[in-house]
Amino acid sequence: MPLWVWLLDSAALGVVLSVLLVSLLVLRRRVVARRSGSFDLSICRHAGPQPTGWVIGVGSYGPESLDWYRTFSFAWWPRYRFFRGDLEIFERRDPDGSEAFALDDGDVIVRIHHLSGVQQLAMSPSALTGLLAWLESSPPGRGVSNVV
Question: pLDDT, tens digit, for every residue of 123-140?
Fold first, then answer.
């Protein structure tokens, strides 16, 4: 077989594999986003206001944990799991300067303390209301502290 046929076949195979990978990524994103109690949630492992370090994703409520899935990932499991009793919210603020370009329009940022090392969460104001209600609705006897 001539060389150009091998090159054409290789290019076609590359295109088909690329389409399959993008389709898998889109399918995963749709499945995660369609779960009950899911919302757009960005995280940052840095403490101060800065435009770098923000990673967009989807948060999904479970009975005892908030699961965070990275938007552009092939993993079907959550990257971070925030258990209700381990999550503390300290303060709320608006995005500062160029930080607003790294987040969705209208997002608010809350500073948190969690064992995973995540320092900040960004979400819509209505999602923050839902998060605070979820944290406060823990069963009796479980110490949950949040201040906003």
Answer: 999 999 999 998 888 776
